[in-house]
Each structure stands twice: as structure tokens, then as C-alpha cells.
Amino acid sequence: DTAVSQTPKYLVTQMGNDKSIKCEQNLGHDTMYWYKQDSKKFLKIMFSYNNKELIINETVPNRFSPKSPDKAHLNLHINSLELGDSAVYFCASSPGTIFSEQYFGPGTRLTVT
Amino acid sequence: AQKITQTQPGMFVQEKEAVTLDCTYDTSDQSYGLFWYKQPSSGEMIFLIYQGSYDEQNATEGRYSLNFQKARKSANLVISASQLGDSAMYFCAIHPRRGGSQGNLIFGKGTKLSVKP
Q1: What is the pLDDT of residue B100?
Q2: Does A45 reach chain B within 8 Å, measured CB to CB?
Q3: Of A24, A19, A35, which Cα lies nearest the Cα of A113?
Q4: Are B53 and B34 in contact (CB under 8 A)?
């Protein structure tokens, strides 16, 4: 059983399009996250979501919007895609207790042409 | 603000030897957690080891150990008896106190480890 899953694994699309990445965790965790890994492998938090409380990273453009239909899912919707959005996007989850490790999904490689 | 510095962009180690990957951090929090993750070429992020700021003993997990020096703000990862499968990117991360940053990890830029046969 995959603990944290993401779909799709690869996403190639054109500038200006709108796309979504889905994330599901079956670990019963309370907290979920989206991270972006750029071409230089640098990982940066985008959002964290804990029990219906969304924490938005102010550096993330508002074209990015996370949506959580329930505790096990945190999807990422991106409007008006730009070339600079090309990256690997990781979903992660944690129990939400202090200093608990985060479990990462396999990542979604987004390529904007 | 919290910050992680990994000064070694790339390292080589001979198979079966030990290797130390450096990590220094900067935080004003008294309570925090330090993590190491491995990212093989396949891309997934694999949790390796955790050290809490109030833990008196260095963390160990199999061949991985964390050399935690709080006064120096360093949390180096030691891999003993390197194996070819250890070749990967290694990321150090800090988890600030929950109330301050809602629990997200702050990562360093990573160290690419290559194990030579």
C-alpha cells in the first residue's frame, strides 16, 4: 500500500493552461503539505494544511491554490501556468504532532512548454 | 528566520568506508527538530533520521547516525560502511517549533553523495 500517492507522475502542458495535481495519504495523518523542488534540487514549502486550517506561504503566487476535500486529500490547482512553474511538486503528510517526520509522495514532474 | 547550510555540493566515498555529510543550521527557537532525507535518482524522498533539540544522545538508525553539536548548531549525518545504493542526494532539514511555523520543513540545498566501488 502506498502511504502518500500523487497523480499524475508526469505532467506536460502549455503556458496559460490550468492543471491540477492530486495527493492522497492513507496514513491517517492530520497535516499535509505541498513542496516545490526546482531544477537545482532546492525544496521549498508551498502550503501546509492542518485540520482545515490552510497556511499559505506568502511567496507562492495566488495562481496556486490548494484544495482539501477531506483529511486524506490535498490537491494542488495551478492557474495560468508559466514556464517558471516547471518543477517537481511533492506532497507530504505528517501526524501533526510536534517534530514528527514527514512522509513524501513520489513527486509530480511538471513541465510547462 | 531558520536556515540550513550544507556546504558540500558533492562528495565521493569508497564503498565500505564511512562518510560524514555536513549540516549547520540557524534558528532562534529553543525547541526544534532536525531531519535528514535521502533522494535517490528515482526521485522519491526517504526519511532517514531525526534529532530533537533536547535529545541528549545522538540519534542512530542502522548505518545512519547524527553527530549533533548543539552549541555549534551542527547536525552532521554519518553513514557507516557505505554501499553503492547510498549514492543519492542528501538533504538536511529543520522543523521549527510548531507554533511558529506550522510545522513545515526548511531544507538545505543538499549534498550529492557518490559511492565508488
Answers
A1: 43
A2: yes
A3: A19
A4: yes
